[in-house]
């Protein structure tokens, strides 16, 4: 089981669980296959379960009354998704859309409560997981509010590099096709402004494109623009 845990969790937000506690989670999960384009939950749905992604990708979004979509997080294999306050009768504040055919494990809140009540070490690991969620939210607000759209874009590129990046000498290839529309939805900007900012970064030789994918050529410049705080890997991710 340890090999399986490590393989599907290379970049996951569940690293805070010990092998024993992770296996306890696995036992409670009910497996489900979900196709691309479907939803794990919608904003406003009753929150009564968590979802562990075994394969695939899921994006968490928030919509405005005008229909504008803001992409908050992109989850992948090894991540657990859902409302981080399972002990209150709450509704989901976000929508979770499946963007690749996925396999997920469904964890009912009532089963989670039993694990927490029975195993104090599991409760501590779960609190660590909740803490990661809170820090991710704080850094997202920082990106959007502190250093303008250029800072938010540079921070997002760094996070994409940490999540999907492949090192090639001094360069980092973001090995996922990310459209300008995706980037604009991630930072709450227009597509046109993202085009303009990326063009400026290309002129400064900070980024480039390779087969439709973004390559980070000058990580230091991006860090300077967004006033990077050198957060750990589990926080500095998309």
Automatic annotation (TrEMBL):
It comes from the Bacteria. Keywords: Activator, DNA-binding, Transcription, Transcription regulation. GO terms for cellular component: cytosol. SMART domains: cNMP, HTH_CRP. Residues 147-220 form the HTH crp-type domain. GO terms for molecular function: DNA binding; DNA-binding transcription factor activity. Residues 13-116 form the Cyclic nucleotide-binding domain. It holds the Pfam family HTH_Crp_2. This is Crp/Fnr family transcriptional regulator.
